[in-house]
Amino acid sequence: MAKILVSEADPDVRRLLIVLVRRLGHEAVVIDPNVEVPPRADLLLAEHGSHDPELPVVSTTKPFTLAQMRSRIQHGLGPALA
User: Fold this and answer.
1) Given the DSSP bridges, would you call strands 27-30 and 3-6 parallel, antiparallel or unpaired?
2) Whole-angstrom Cα distance, residue 77 to residue 1?
3) Residues of the chain with pLDDT under 70
4) Given this model, what pLDDT does residue 3 score?
5) Residue 31's closest CA among 47, 76, 20?
6) How far apart (Å, rounded) are the C-alpha atoms in residues 41 and 10?
7) 3-state secondary structure of 43
8) Helix, strand, coil abundance in the chain, percent, nearest 5
9) What is the pLDDT of residue 30?
10) Smallest Cα–Cα separation from 63: which of 20, 31, 30?
């Protein structure tokens, strides 16, 4: 199980991402926009271009299915955490 940060302004999309991450067996952590330093994580779900360069990112700007999200998360995490 990996810790995945969720950074999404739209509350409906944020809830969907949280449900998908949990359904895929990972821990979803919502980033508080008022926090300067987000908690440690293995992956970040965010809009393209809004991320820490040290953290693997899965872009949420395009529509996706559960299978596509699973594949993107597994690819982003690598074999050790997927």
Assistant:
1) parallel
2) 10
3) 48-54, 80-82
4) 94
5) 47
6) 21
7) strand
8) 30, 20, 50
9) 93
10) 20
Residue with tokens 């979803």: 28
Tokens at residue 30, please? Answer: 């919502």
State residue 40's pLDDT score.
87
Neighbours of 2 (CB within 10 A): 20
Token code pair at residue 19: 């449900």
Beta bridge partners of 28: 4
Number of helical (H) and strand (E) elements in the chain, helices listed first: 2, 4
Predicted confidence at residue 50, as pLDDT, reads: 58
Give the C-alpha distances (Å, rounded to integers) separating 43 from 2, 49: 8, 14
pTM: 0.69
